[in-house]
């Protein structure tokens, strides 16, 4: 179950000049006890796509980013950022 743009050929690699997108998907999944496979099935993407996202190897489309935020019921800024998130326990 992949969507257009989520195939190996169409995958947008993260990490280009100024294009790194940071995320808290793994933290949100852990807090809610959701597996990569469960999240992927809900979003209609391959479970490996969730892994690529979590590792910063893939930058999501705006549509996918908004769907992820909606799934976790948080603003998109809670899930994604252009700057690294502070480590837990740091301010």
TrEMBL record:
For whether the record's keyword set contains Transmembrane helix, the answer is no
Any Pfam family from its record, for instance, is HTH_3
Write out the entry's keywords from A to Z.
DNA-binding
Gene3D superfamilies of this UniProt entry?
A: lambda repressor-like DNA-binding domains (1.10.260.40)
Q: Which SUPFAM superfamilies does the entry link to?
A: lambda repressor-like DNA-binding domains
Where in this chain does the record put each HTH cro/C1-type domain? 25-79
| Name assigned to this protein | Helix-turn-helix transcriptional regulator
Organism, scientific name: Nocardiopsis mangrovi
């Amino acid at each position: 179950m992949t969507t257009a743009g989520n195939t190996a050929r169409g995958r947008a690699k993260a990490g280009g000049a100024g294009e790194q997108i940071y995320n808290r998907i793994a933290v949100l999944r852990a807090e809610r006890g959701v597996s990569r496979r469960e999240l992927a099935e809900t979003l209609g993407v391959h479970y490996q796509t969730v892994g690529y996202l979590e590792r910063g190897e893939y930058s999501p489309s705006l549509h996918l980013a908004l769907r992820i935020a909606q799934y976790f019921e948080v603003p998109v800024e809670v899930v994604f950022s252009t700057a690294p998130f502070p480590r837990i326990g740091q301010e």
